[in-house]
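Fill in residues.
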């Protein structure tokens, strides 16, 4: 039994795996609370009750209704994080949460005021639920721009509650016309000094959270240093520098029970570092699924990600003709920017024997890809932490990544993967060629695979670092 420490923490986020998932943020929100629960923390979650949530898979019960928020009413439903006893509060409002998916844009970046309204309304709602649920957290752990106004509201309302804001992706900020935001929230704009920050006519929701949260952290130590610079600071580096002493870097972890090649039900056959020959059966299975030639000697490269500028998709597209000449096979799984989806479909039609573009979200196929490919591509322009490279290593797929953010913190060059520095397609291609040369040497490749699979990416260490921050806040 975990030792109780009397700390009560509410996670406030826009997504959570598996209840409502789009990207890596959901994986963190779905796994970190379980590690914190093992440390004895009373941790719970709050999410919007999106219309896309499957009520049959995640049945919930109504625990409170008719709570007034900005002239609207919200209802509170309660469910549990699957395979745990961790409570999840789903906040229901038909006007703001029922339509569309989790985000309004395919790229998950802000594209409309409707999305701004959705998450401002959600943030305001969170601070209204505690009397109704008879539970008062010590710390509100907020995640990304979607919940960055929670610390703002807490200050305006002078609520005696501490806030931690985690920066998962600084590039997505929730920047919008200041007047529209203030009118929606029914506030004047002189309540806090921070409202003077940024551009004259715009208000940056993420920046407001950065300036008002009690403590900040981001999801790798390297990204913590990067965002203090003009290159990676996304025009809020000066605000971050003001909070430098309160800004921490804590590396994300993985749900190692879920991402486990020994037990993964989506694999053709399970395996471990001690029986890597079994992994080859997953490779053959993947080749059959994708319509490729079934040949264990042909190296398969894979990319699983959002098709967004951040992820280096443009670099991969540029080198595909060269990869085809090298007679490798390439599978890409993901959705995102229309122009990337279109180009990848065209390349798939042009090179059907070598390229498979899976333009969709398919969790089961993702696991089959991790378990069947030889090399995992993640040439990100920037990467706060990245989970794909950690999952890939756990499954014995060797990452080729750009040396940035959490990729630099997790991949050991020439030991568990291969890194390159300049954001150029020629550098990516050169590094892929280096990896393929090592791949030809079965003994050397097996050594790298075993080293990669032996890395500990569990939440055990990082959850203790979060506990320290919570205790610091709760003093």
């Amino acid at each position: 039994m975990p030792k109780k420490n009397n700390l009560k923490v509410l996670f406030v986020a826009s997504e959570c795996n598996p209840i409502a998932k789009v990207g890596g943020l959901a994986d963190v929100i779905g796994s970190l609370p379980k590690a914190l629960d093992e440390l004895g923390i009373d941790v719970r979650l709050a999410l919007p009750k999106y219309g896309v949530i499957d009520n049959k898979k995640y049945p919930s019960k109504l625990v409170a209704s008719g709570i007034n928020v900005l002239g609207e009413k919200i209802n509170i439903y309660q469910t549990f994080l699957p395979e745990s006893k961790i409570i999840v509060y789903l906040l229901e409002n038909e006007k703001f949460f029922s339509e569309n998916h989790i985000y309004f844009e395919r790229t998950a970046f802000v594209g409309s005021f409707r999305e701004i309204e959705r998450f401002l309304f959600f943030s305001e709602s969170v601070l209204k639920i505690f009397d109704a649920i008879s539970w008062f957290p010590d710390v509100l752990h907020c995640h990304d721009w979607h919940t960055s106004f929670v610390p703002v509201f807490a200050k305006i309302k002078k609520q005696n509650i501490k806030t931690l804001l985690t920066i998962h992706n600084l590039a997505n900020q929730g920047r919008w016309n200041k007047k529209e935001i203030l009118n929606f929230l029914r506030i004047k704009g002189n309540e806090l000094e921070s409202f003077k920050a940024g551009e004259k006519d715009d208000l940056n929701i993420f920046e407001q959270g950065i300036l008002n949260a009690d403590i900040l952290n981001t999801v790798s130590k390297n990204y913590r240093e990067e965002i203090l610079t003009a290159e990676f600071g996304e025009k809020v580096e000066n605000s971050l520098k003001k909070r430098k002493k309160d800004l921490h870097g804590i590396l994300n972890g993985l749900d190692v029970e879920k991402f486990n090649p020994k037990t993964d039900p989506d694999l053709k056959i399970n395996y471990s570092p001690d029986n890597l020959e079994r992994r080859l059966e997953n490779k053959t299975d993947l080749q059959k699924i994708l319509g490729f030639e079934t040949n264990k000697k042909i190296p398969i490269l894979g990319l699983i990600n959002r098709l967004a500028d951040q992820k280096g998709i443009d670099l991969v597209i540029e080198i595909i003709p060269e990869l085809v000449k090298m007679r490798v096979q390439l599978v890409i799984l993901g959705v995102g920017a229309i122009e990337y989806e279109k180009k990848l479909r065209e390349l798939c039609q042009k090179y059907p024997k070598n390229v498979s573009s899976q333009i969709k979200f398919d969790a089961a196929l993702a696991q089959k890809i991790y378990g069947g490919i030889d090399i995992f591509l993640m040439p990100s322009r920037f990467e706060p932490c990245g989970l794909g490279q950690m999952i890939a290593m756990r499954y014995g797929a060797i990452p080729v990544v750009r040396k940035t953010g959490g990729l630099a913190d997790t991949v050991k060059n020439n030991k568990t993967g291969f890194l390159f520095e300049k954001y150029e397609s020629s550098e990516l291609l050169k590094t892929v060629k280096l990896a393929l040369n090592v791949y030809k040497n079965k003994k050397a490749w097996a050594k790298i695979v075993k080293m990669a699979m032996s890395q500990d990416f569990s939440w055990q260490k990082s959850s203790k670092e979060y506990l320290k921050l919570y205790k610091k806040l709760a003093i």
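The radius of gyration is 23 Å.
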